[in-house]
Amino acid sequence: MKKTVFEYKDYKTYIHEKILASPNKGRGIKRNMAAFLGCQTAYVSQVLNQHVNFSLEQAVKMNQFWEHNKEESRFFLLLVQFQRAGSKDLENFLRTEMEEIVEKRSNLKERLNIKDSLDETNQHIYYSAWYYAAVHILLSIPEFQTPKSIANHLRLPLKQIQEILSFLETTGLAVQKSGKYEIGLTRIHLSKTSVQIRRHHTNWRNQAITSIDKNEEEALHYSSVLSMSDKDVPKIKEIMIKAIEECREIIKVSKEERLQIITMDFFKI
Q1: Are the CB atoms for 146 and 181 separated by under 8 Å?
Q2: What is the DSSP letter of 51?
Q3: Helix 158-170 × helix 70-84 angle, to 10°
Q4: Which residue, 27, 25, 21, is CA-closest to 8?
Q5: How far is Cα 25 from Cα 258, in angstroms, rounded to an integer?
Q6: Structure pTM?
Q7: What whole-number distance in Å separates Cα of residue 117 and Cα of residue 199?
Q8: What pLDDT is recorded for position 269?
């Protein structure tokens, strides 16, 4: 099982193991790292195998190369600074910083294990934009459980996806396992009276408009302006509700392969 950067006390060991865990046991990765840093491959090998350390500027580049999120980047920099420390006082200070981060993450995981719903503050963030829910549900599909695959699929910046995943992980909506993200234990549900429900509907109606503009053959959009009797309005509404219920029964046992959106509008003016 792949470990996270938070489980290491030596950044060189961390990089070595990441390389070995990569496809083809990391063949060519040192060369790619060197090209990314703008140095020779021999220098990268020297850093990983001798008493030479990356500079902090190079450590920042390494964060980019390994696609660390904000918290991972911060911890990796602390590891590099720890290796470069020139005094015991500085070593002790940096060690304490890292231990506090590890302890905080451990306590957070314990809290998330017993959390069964998203609190109001985080609901506000989750429903502030469509892509939080999109990333969240994409994690149920094995093909889309890494930041890069999600960014490519949704055509959003990698940094933005990393921030979203960090939020989902912090709230327990996602968990990181073996270098991939999966849907977490926390559940989210909106009642009809929730102040977030309007935002939720608006987010996806806006995406429906985008879908209409794309005019994709596979998509289905239906709009009709009509007149009808008052007594038939409840009948139409009931048909729609039953259709939704039937769809939900199919979705319950359906294999997770793609992200689909269902929106339905039926109202008077």
Answers
A1: yes
A2: S
A3: 90
A4: 21
A5: 30
A6: 0.59
A7: 19
A8: 54
Compute the distance between CA of residue 218 and CA of residue 240 in angstroms, rounded to an integer: 21
Side chain identity at residue 92, one-letter code: N
Going by the DSSP 8-state scheme, the letter that residue 129 receives in this structure is S
Model confidence over 29-40: pLDDT tens digits?
A: 999 999 999 999
Residue 58 CB coordination number (10 Å): 20
Q: How confident is the model at residue 156 (pLDDT cuts 50, 70, 90)?
A: very high
Question: Dihedral of the CA atoms 110, 81, 22, 170 (nearest 10)?
Answer: 30
**Secondary structure of 64-88 in the HEC alphabet?**
HHCCCCHHHHHHHHHHHHHHHCCCH
Sign for the CA dihedral angle at 155, 157, 159, 163 comes to negative
Residues across the chain: 269
Residues 76 and 74: their CA atoms lie apart, in Å, by 6
Count the helices and strands in the chain (H runs, E runs): 12, 2
DSSP symbol at 231: G
Residues 146/180, Cβ–Cβ less than 8 Å: yes
pLDDT, tens digit (0-9, with 9 covering 90-100), for 92-140: 999 999 999 888 776 655 544 434 567 788 888 999 999 999 999 999 9
**Chain centre distance of CA 104:** 20
Question: How far apart are the C-alpha atoms of 55 and 39, rounded to whole Å?
Answer: 12
Cα–Cα distance for residue pair 82/85, rounded to 1 Å: 5
Cα 227 from Cα 237, distance rounded (Å): 15
Q: How far apart are CA 7 and CA 255, in angstroms?
A: 34
